[in-house]
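thoughts on both lines:
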Amino acid sequence: MEVVDECIQGTYDLTAEEEEVGSRQVEDIDGEGVSLQAEAQEPAHNGVSCQPNQGNDDDGRGWDQGHRVTFTGCRNHSHGPHPAGFGRHGVCAHENKELAKAREALPLIEDSSNCDIVKATQYGIFERCKELVEAGYDVRQPDKENVSLLHWAAINNRLDLVKFYISKGAVVDQLGGDLNSTPLHWAIRQGHLPMVILLLQYGADPALIDGEGFSSIHLAVLFQHMPIIAYLISKGQSVNMTDLSGQTPLMLSAHKVLGPEPTGFLLKFNPSLNVVDKIHKNTPLHWAVAAGNINAVDKLLEAGSSLDIQNVKGETPLDLALQNKNQLIIHMLKTEAKMRANRKFRLWRWLQKCELFLLLMLSVITMWAVGYILDFNSDSWLLKGCLLVTLFFLTSLFPRFLVGYKSLVYLPNFPHILQSTPFYFVFILSIIGSLYFFYKTWATDPGFTKSSEEERKMNIITLAETGCLDFRTFCTSCLIRKPLRSLHCHVCNSCVARYDQHCLWTGRCIGFGNHHYYIFFLFFLAFMCDWIMYESFLYWSNHCATTFGEDGLWTYLSQIVACSPWVLYIFMLATFHFSWSTFLLINQLFQIAFLGLTSHERTSLLKQSRHMKQPLSLRRTPYNLGFTQNLADFFHCGCFGLAKPCAVDWTSQYTMVFHPAKEKVLRSV
């Protein structure tokens, strides 16, 4: 069977963020080096520029003091395009206009053989570097700024030169530069995951610290390179490793990096939440509060950070927030403290345990109360209106305490005419069917991807070393390799196989495991609501004195309201639920049978087609196998022998599988 690997080492369109990264710009990284992402992955050769277009000193460095200007490569096996916060440097497989302009602006040198070894290393001129080394140049010799050749190769992601220099005796952990860093530190600052992998394979020590007291994982956190963080931890570096001041990566993230990441990313690796640093005795929550990092505070509170630990001055996180007068953080801390105090009471724990049952009871009681008020033996609509307002106020104010009406005999009886119709048995079946398939939709695993901690680390290492550790194949929330057609649901906080939607009406994700149950639920719900609407009209025609033909619609409405407000109330509920369930059912069946797509896939393709010159056909996708085959695969049935279902486990499907009927067409192309 033909398969196509999801991690394609080919070309793809650059995003606006990547073009910005790839354009000519100088970035200050605390004196450790700056990359201009512009050159192709092949080594520079004769005719390529060896100097930036600004005035440079002889060693090829510096527009400004404290900046190093280099010309680095974009390799198609790096960690790929990524959203904000997933790393600072993307990858590209083809040149864009910005990169072309960057190269055109640089003066050309007719003969690259005139470059010294530092420049040749910066620009990746392998043959020139090899010539100079074989002529007797010591690869361990640093330049006048105490920077070795291995540092220059690492910061510019010159993999071939790193291999060559190490084979010639270069020290993989040689210290150099203003911050006394190793080549691994320089590579991490620039976000070069392939270089990090290579240096670790050659024995680089990620636990070494630089002149500022940071180890490799601390630098990766400070520069927000999540793929490198994941790879270092998966290779065995402790997520709780401390720097010289005793700060863990989580403390640095909470203190130095504003925003939810990489704090949320680090929490996936189960770091210590309540460890304190050596000097101030602050926890990560202390540091987040001190920095006013609202997102980090929220993440740490959600993870269960202690609110009671005091630092060296005897201050709790709340004390720091009060000093800083950050009202939002003060509110967050006080609210969390209240919730944790409530959890100590047995009644509160019981309410949380029975939350679903109580919510179901509340909905039944509310429905009964509305019907009872509407049918109350009183002609005063002002009184009924006040009672309804009071009811809705109480249900919104005390949703977990309006319980206790255990007997349902007080529910208003549906008119007897509805029980005498020949459709009564069908109605009961539709109720049972809708309740059963609602339960199956809610209780069945929609396709949550699961893996152990060891499996996650192995996946990270495998994806990183094969050049596929990017957001297309790796979920930074679940720390797993994403199966085809999966998506991370932020409500359920898990990746869902063959993701369709997070359903508002069921409170559950719809995916590979429960999608077919969801279709049956919509069918039975629409049928039941349609039946209720029909029987409501039947009741009004037989038991209410109406003059629709003589007096018109408005008079008819007032007559049925006066006849039985509760029946009208049920009719309106049935009409509302019939409308959305029927719409969703028709839409779902169309997508399944004629397109072979999920709701999420269809929406994504429609968004993409808006930016294309030619309209995109939703029917021409690898998942559309024809009307009969689509239905057979979805419902796992043979359609009375018309088709044979093809069983695909989308929870562990990482490559494209072509149906035998389409495989022949693929091979003939």
